[in-house]
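Team,

Forwarding the record for the chain on the shared tracking sheet. I've put the sequence and predicted structure together so nobody has to dig through attachments.
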Amino acid sequence: MVARLNDASEITIPLRNLLALIAGTAIAVMGYFRVGERLSVLERNAELSSVQIEANSEFRILWPRGELGSLPADAQQFMMLEFHQLALDEIRAELDRR
């Protein structure tokens, strides 16, 4: 005898199996979205790391060249060095006169 399916067909399934199917589907859906979320977080972290690495590389190259400016402490030290150099030049000039 050939089974015919139509809108009046009925199926019977034990309640325990139905609940297991629903629970399995729910767990699979939650797992799928958690994996997707984790991938998104990892991609975002990789992008942020890439930006920071590029900025660090640019800083590493430009700072020693003086293209990014200098610290206020450096400017103060340079002024002090110039002052002491001028004072030393004056002392040497005075010693040369004697």
